[in-house]
Amino acid sequence: MSERVEDIAEAMVQNGQGILAADESTGTVKKRFDSIGVDNTEENRQAYRELLFRTADAMNNSIGGVILFEETLFQKAADGTPFVDLIRKAGAVPGIKVDMGAKSMPLLAGETVTEGLDGLRERLAKYYEAGARFAKWRAVIAIDDVRPTVGGIKANAHALARYAALCQEAGIVPIVEPEVQMDADPATHTIERCHEVTDAVLHTVFNELHQQNVKLEGMVLKPNMVVPGSKCVTQCPPEVVAHHTLSVLRRAVPAAVAGIAFLSGGQSELEATANLNAMNSGKNLPWPLTFSYGRALQASALSAWGGAAGNVGAAQAAFTQRAKMNSLAAKGEWKEELETA
Ligand code: 13P
Questions:
Q1: What total number of domains does the chain contain?
Q2: pLDDT (tens digit, 9 = 90+) per residue, 289-333?
Q3: H-helix segments, the chain
Q4: Which domain holds residue 278?
Q5: What CA–CA distance (Å, rounded) separates 315 from 50?
Q6: Ligand 1: which of 63, 181, 264 to mutate, most ligand atoms within 8 Å of CB?
Q7: Catalytic site residue from 24, 70, 177, 269
């Protein structure tokens, strides 16, 4: 009997578990590796991902799902164990990024729409066969005084819903990720502007999901937090970020959605943890609120590793720390003192 998408979705986000976004495309890995002076070879990508997936404490206790890039889904550890098996043995669900990237919209300057729907049904069947039980599609929403336009929002919401429906048909849980950017140029917008844009985006996305009959119980939403742009002069403490984010989510996200797992979007590791914790502190929420971080789970681990086999232990300790802190934050139990304990 095939598994139900509802059960897979629940397993990914329950009990303070979150998602490790390790699905950086080969181009994005280059940027990350450049920052630590490591060559972007297949061997180095494999060694780095193996280090993460073999971090037993983090993987067993804090990570419910791992998003992979296509290359990694079919890759093996040094001893020949498929990565998918390593992830499953740690009790986490393997997933796959299936979009083909955000492409500029021809007549809407400064806006993008994410592509990758053509042939997606066939790719999903192949990914399912390889062990993937959830997928990710990221829409990138520009934000300034005039963007996004209604046309830009609608195009992305429509594509997200078409992707989500294809995933559920294939027995795969869709992570629906409409990302309102915090660090794109010029990133000077206020938290109020982010509130307004995120609200419009999420309402449009859930309207499209409804029209295309997507089962909300079998999906995970991966939104941005409502934050000021990274270059805005007025930055906000976690309580303010939590207030704005929860107010938008309560109005726009139906209670039936299996879970909400935030992206970190350029926040520092500590900011991403403190903000998540503030959202989970003593509020009665209809959905689990957890993390699906890339940079905010990996930044310390990546720099501790630096490409040297002798640093694997230090990198794994750094990853364990971030995973544990974020898992506590997903339960509202994180405190800044624990960072140095
Ligand atoms: P960040 O947490 O680094 O934003 O990455 C999450 C992600 O998967 C973006 O698509």
A1: 1
A2: 999 999 999 999 999 999 999 999 999 999 999 999 999 999 999
A3: 5-13, 26-35, 42-53, 56-61, 70-73, 83-89, 120-129, 150-169, 191-211, 238-252, 269-279, 295-305, 312-330
A4: 5-340
A5: 12
A6: 264
A7: 177
The answer to whether 311 touches 37, Cβ cutoff 8 Å, is no
**Catalytic one among 24, 179, 222, 269?**
222
* Catalytic site includes residue 24: no
Residue 279 sits in a domain of what CATH number? 3.20.20.70
SS3 assignment, position 179: strand
Burial group, residue 172, by CB count within 10 angstroms (0-12, 13-18, 19+): buried
Tell me which residue of 333, 244, 258 sits closest to 289, measured CA to CA. 258
Q: What residue ranges line ligand 1, CB within 6 angstroms?
A: 21, 138, 177, 263-265, 293-296
Split at pLDDT 50, 70, 90, the class of 185 is confident
Q: Which residue has the tokens 């429906």?
A: 165
